[in-house]
Amino acid sequence: xxxxxxxxxxxxxxxxLHALLLGLLTLAAAKAVSGGEPHSAAVVTVSCVLAAVYxxxxxxxxxxxxxxxxxxxxxxxxALWLVLLAFSPDGLWVAFPLYFLQLHLLPMRWxxxxxxxxxxxxxxxxxxxxxxxxxxxxxxxxxxxxxxxATVLGYDALFRESERRRELIEELVSTRAELAAAExxxxxxxxxxxxxxEIHDTLAQGLSSIQLLLRAAERTLEPDxxxxxxxxxxxxxxxxxxxxxxxxxxxxxxxxxxxxxLAAALERLSARTTDSALTVQxxxxxxxxxxxxxxxxxxxxxxxxxxxxxxQHAGARRAEITLSFMGTSVSLDVVDDGRGFSPGTATARxxxxxGGFGLPAMRSRARSLGGTLSVESAPGQGTAVALTLPLxxxxxxxxxx
Length: 401
Fold this sequence. Notes:
By secondary structure, this protein is an alpha+beta fold. A five-stranded mixed sheet has the order 1-2-3-5-4. Helix 10 links the parallel strand 1 and strand 2. Helix 4 packs antiparallel against helix 5 and helix 9 runs parallel beside helix 10. The longest helix is centred in the middle third of the chain and has 86 residues. The radius of gyration is 42 Å and the shape is elongated.
């Protein structure tokens, strides 16, 4: 029979069904023998064959709801039950477990007619054997059929509800695990950025200043002065440690910047964001120069945040990201044709009208690098976010990391 995973209550119900059918067959055979009925041997034989066929089907893996094997098994049981009815009126009680089997193994559109036919056969056999006709003759089989239908329908509804709850719980557990993983990843990335910024703003800048001072001191000393070798050795040590600090900063750079330039990372961001509802284009203006890692991180994160607001809140059809190198500064412009907002209102701090912190975070990044962030928008006229950072005196020199 059905081998799906069922709760313990369902297993107990199946055992009760087995016991009920076998008990009723035993009762019919015992009454036929004890009552001295003329067909007692036939009743015992048919009861034993019916019990054997039932046991074989109950143990057969192929007998499943909605299968041909299940239908054939039910047909065999029905035929043997009709033979039993022909020999003994006591066989009609076997109709009750048959109701449950028919409703369980057959689709409902076939199960209900089968139950009706079974009840009619039970009532007919009672009349054919000349038994006393009472209201119970008709009410008993019909009431049993109604109880069987109500029980099976109720159990199926409870089982479906249980399955829906189980699937919902599994989905919630999976979602919670995904959210936890996303939060861990976000926390790791934020900590990496913080460490890179701290190393750049403290160790790297300090070592760069020490190197410059030692270089100046070395130039003021005579080549054969006793302190010259020590100053040169200190300058070289500072230079080596500055290079090591820069390697740390590069190692802590965001994943989007690990395998390419800032322009390549912005190009990938545009491609990932483009879909059927929004087209994102990226362009580079001017001659690209190598930027310190904190500059690249600030520009990339600003583009990600601005584009995220565009996707989630602007309802735009088109957006453009432009990275411009202008000799003494570098700027990033993110422009969309969405619904826009009023930048001056207190409830539009992130462009969403929800009082978030997208724009304040971008401004904080800009201020930390000596740059500026400007936002131009109006309801129904799109939004333009521009981040401008002053370029270091020499991005490849000794005063930048």
